[in-house]
Design goal:
heterodimer, A: 264 residues, mainly alpha, two-stranded antiparallel ribbon, 4 helices, rod-shaped, B: 18 helices, 65% helix
């Protein structure tokens, strides 16, 4: 993977190191949390999958029963009972509404059905009054059950899809953190540490070198001082003898220089 | 003059009676039903039906057959037979035949009125009407906005006009009243038909009222059972019961106050023919009641063929054919929905 050896381009200072370390801690914690989230979502996912399978099976059965109830109603009440019922409907009395549910941080849509009594429920009670009324009501009950199952199935399936998306995103983030961000940060930290160490070494080396120079300087000075003190001793001795070696020396040397007393 | 129809009936009615008996012999038998119940797919059903009288009607259907197509084609056959008989008939047989279709007309009229009330397209509604119940001005029902207009514009020209006197009082056409309206119309129709048959005299006046009485009683029981627990008041319920039949008037009194099925059962058990029907049901169950009624009806209809020289055979034939179409619909649906185990629940064998 291309991200393995990379690091961020930063100035390798101590503050930067602190910043990088903080980020690494943040990344690690984030990684752990996301992993937990992903696990929780996967558990939910599996549960929903199981429920979907069982609901689909029951739906097959229920739809079959409701179609059969319709056939029975048609048999007893005459073939055009379907048209009679369809024509006498104004607006749906069984409705579906959706709301959001929060599951482990993911907003899942959930559908539920409710009966809208205002839409003229009671009048359909008299359908098939003279024959087939019972079958029509039974058919109604069967279809209401079918609708309930269908609504539940729809809500499960949408949750399934949404959860799937959410799990994919979370896993992508987990993997990204694990395989890209953290290594990069670690590499950057290592680089900064390396650079800092090198700087320290350089400094150290410089210090050592300067110490070496200073030491030599001091030694030289000590040597010079020693020689000077030896000369001083010699001068003192010669002075005692009446000669100033230093000044003799000095006289000769200074002779080339300007002396006010001497005219020529 | 009962007993002497043999002298004069065949002059006008002989040809058609023979025709209707011919049609009756073309009804599916138990063996046919057994074959059909063994079918696995709708194509098998089509194949079996092509060996019966329905052959020519189902031949040209394309292969992915639908249950509604089968029912449509069978109904078409019924309509063709009816029209054939109607155009050969003279008075009073032609009036009698027309009476048979008033029930369908009532259903169609109510369907169109309801549909218009809910703003549906007229053409679609016309397609959903029963073919036997069509009349010329049916499309204009869609124009009416309330009962008076409805009556004035359309219904006064149809044979349904006199039936509306009973429910012309309600001005609103909302859903509750429509179902009550439909049943009130049907009640008036039954009474009218009953009186007409009485006037015809002879064997018809013996047999038809019997059949119509059964129909009226059955409707009374159904109305009672289906209105338990709804907003229909007792008085309204009373008004929907017909003024003839075995249950009139005492049975109606009892039924009007019934509040659950067991009370209905105890009211019915005083009448021997209905007691046997209710004996087939166990306590508290009313699902099979409709099938029991159908079986009883079929039995009575078949008996009417035993006598000759009366018009009840026509009525009986139409009803039996309807039952056959119902059976076919049931069988096709069971086969199509893979519910073969339930097929024998509701097939009523005619012979």
């Amino acid at each position: 993977m291309s991200g393995q050896g990379q690091r961020l381009n930063v100035v390798p200072t101590v503050t930067m190191l602190g910043v990088m370390k903080a980020r690494l801690v943040g990344a690690t914690r984030g990684h752990a949390l996301l992993k937990k989230k992903s696990d929780a979502l996967t558990v939910q996912f599996r549960a929903i999958l199981k429920k979907i399978v069982s609901t689909k099976e029951s739906m097959g059965e229920i739809m079959r029963n409701s179609s059969f109830a319709l056939t029975e109603a048609k048999y007893v009440a005459g073939d055009n009972i379907k048209h009679v019922v369809l024509e006498s409907v104004k607006s749906a009395s069984l409705r579906v509404r959706s709301r959001q549910e929060n599951v482990a941080g993911v907003k899942l849509p959930r559908f539920e059905h409710f009966v809208d009594h205002g839409a003229g429920d009671a009048k359909s009670d008299l359908t098939g009054l003279a024959r087939g009324g019972q079958q029509v009501q039974a058919c109604r009950v069967a279809y209401v059950k079918a609708i309930e199952v269908l609504v539940e199935l729809a809500s499960l399936q949408t949750s399934f899809l949404t959860l799937d998306e959410a799990i994919k995103t979370t896993n992508r983030r987990v993997n990204a953190l694990e395989n890209v961000v953290k290594p990069r940060l670690e590499n950057t930290i290592n680089y900064i540490k390396g650079e800092l160490d090198e700087l320290e070494r350089e400094d150290f080396f410089r210090l050592k070198k300067i110490q070496g120079y200073k030491k030599r300087e001091i030694e030289r000075q000590e040597l010079a001082a020693k020689m000077f003190s030896e000369e001083q001793q010699a001068e003192k001795i010669s002075l005692k003898k009446g000669i100033s070696i230093n000044s003799a020396h000095n006289l000769l040397e200074v002779g080339g220089g300007k002396d006010e007393d001497i005219i020529f | 003059m009962y007993g002497f129809e043999a002298l004069t009936f065949n002059i006008h009615g002989g040809y058609l009676e023979a025709i209707v008996r011919g049609y009756r012999s073309g009804l599916l038998t138990a063996a046919d039903y057994n074959n059909l119940c063994q079918c696995e797919t709708l194509d098998d059903i089509k194949m079996h039906l092509s060996a019966t009288e329905y052959g020519s009607y189902l031949q040209n259907e394309p292969s992915p057959l639908h249950t509604t197509t089968i029912v449509e084609k069978c109904t078409l056959k019924l309509v063709d037979e009816y029209k054939h008989m109607l155009c050969q008939a003279t008075e009073p047989l032609s009036t009698f035949l027309e009476y048979i279709t008033y029930g369908y007309m009532i259903d169609n009229a109510v369907l169109i009125v309801t549909g218009t009330l809910h703003e549906r397209d007229v053409q679609e509604l016309l397609e959903k009407c029963h073919p036997l119940g069509m009349f010329d001005s049916i499309a204009t029902l869609a124009v009416a906005q309330n009962m008076r207009e409805l009556y004035r514009l359309v219904l006064v020209d149809t044979p349904l006009a006199p039936y509306f006197s009973e429910c012309i009082t309600s001005e609103d056409l909302d859903d509750m009243n429509i179902e009550i309206m439909r049943n009130t119309l049907y009640k008036a129709y039954l009474e009218d038909f009953y009186n007409f048959c009485q006037k015809l005299g002879g064997a018809t006046a013996e047999i038809m009222p019997d059949l119509l009485a059964f129909e009226a009683d059955r409707r009374a029981v159904n109305i009672t059972i289906n209105s338990i627990g709804t907003e229909l008041t007792r008085d309204e319920r009373r008004k929907l019961y017909s003024n003839f039949g075995l249950l009139y008037p005492y049975g109606h009194e009892e039924l009007a106050v019934c509040e659950d099925i067991d009370q209905v059962r105890s009211a019915m058990e005083k009448y021997p023919p209905y007691q046997s029907i209710f004996a087939k049901l166990s306590y508290g169950e009313s699902q099979m009641l409709d099938k029991a009624f159908y079986e009883e009806e079929v039995k009575r209809l078949c008996l009417s063929f035993e006598q000759q020289f009366h018009y009840a055979v026509f009525f009986a034939y139409m009803r039996l054919k309807e039952q056959e179409i119902r059976n076919l619909m049931w069988i096709s649906e069971c086969v199509a929905q893979n519910q073969k185990s339930r097929i024998h629940d509701s097939v009523v064998f005619i012979f």
